[in-house]
Amino acid sequence: MYNLALILAFVFLLAGCSAPSVTVSGKSDTNTTFAIAIHGGAGVISKAQLSPEREAAIRNDLERALKAGQAILTKGGTSMDAVVAAVNILEDSPYFNAGKGAVLTSEGHSELDAAIMDGKTLGAGAVTGLRQVKNPINLARAVMEKSPHVMLSGNGAEVFARSAGIEMVAPSYFVTPERQRALEAAKRKENASGMNQGEMRKLNYGTVGAVALDRNGNLAAATSTGGMTNKKWGRVGDAPIIGAGTYANNASAAISATGWGEFFIRSVVAHDIAALIEYKGLKTEVAAQTVIDKVGQLGGDGGVIVMDRKGQIAMPFNSEGMYRGWANGNLKPETRIFKEK
Ligand code: ASP
């Protein structure tokens, strides 16, 4: 009897150690909760310019990305694999400012940034200024898993990409007529009268990101972007900066941001949200809103997607819209664009 009590107490202790996991049907260490959330960028999304066909195509790609991540999580796959699968689909879609269809620099080519973080190990990988890597998030992951570094940039990052067997493409692969028109319009404005805050705001939207919680209670975050239209001088935004646009920690949450990067860097948005959850015990929704409000007070705009260790999702934004979606467990994926719930 005494032995049985001891064994039971030991089993109980073991189960407790792996929080937030719960025991399901005799399998310890397996969480019933798994979820994924994604964004396809925040910013000035004009309802007038969003034709029903375009909206349907965008929602379709968001849904495909969610389903790809969800399929991995359902089978017990890792949150890391899920966020990469979701981001790859959005990078390959021409509708978002990442991978194919990324915005153009003042010189007329794409310069791509991405970052990924593993909430279990706090491992992280980031890349900036890529011109020929088809899926920058894959290179960010390779930096995390196959190099001793966290962040690689430009030409050196692409030398590493080749050695790591990452798929490369010609710079022209990324360029779409829509982004060429946007660059021409930005240049005309800049040459005529310079850009005011409102016009600057229109230069960034469409960054993609994903956050996920897997059945083992592990969180991951990934973000991939082309940055801002007409960017110069090797400008780098928040997306590849760990703690600004991307962060994940099993102790708090996984976060991916989109918006006017300069403000997100200065507000250290992603880590600030995680810190409010971990150190101050704020509810995920309150922590995320607090930091987005702070970005707004500085004059910036954008939004975040946040997944906490219990699978609670928050998606606040202070821009007109944010392409976003989520899938809880096996439930049907949901997508939204404007402020509707
Ligand atoms: N945050 C990105 C950047 O500033 C842009 C975006 O979210 O669309 O590089």
Helix content: 25-40%
What is the chain-wise order of helices and strands?
Answer: HEHHEEHEHHHEEEEHHHEEEE
Structural class comes to alpha+beta
Portion of residues in beta strands equals 15-25%
Question: Which sequence of strands runs across the widest sheet?
Answer: 4-3-2-6-5-1-11-12
Shape call? globular
List keywords for this structure.
binds aspartic acid; alpha+beta; single chain; 341 residues; four-stranded antiparallel β-sheet; eight-stranded mixed β-sheet
What does the model show?
With 341 residues, the chain is of the alpha+beta class. It has a domain at 34-245 and 317-335. The protein has helices at residues 2-17, 52-74, 79-92, 136-146, 154-163, 177-193, 197-201, 261-266, 269-280, 284-298, and strands at 35-43, 112-118, 124-130, 151-153, 208-213, 219-225, 246-248, 253-259, 302-308, 313-314, 321-328, 334-336. Aspartic acid is lined by residues 41, 97, 204-207, 225, 227-228, 237-239, 245, 258-259, 261, 302.
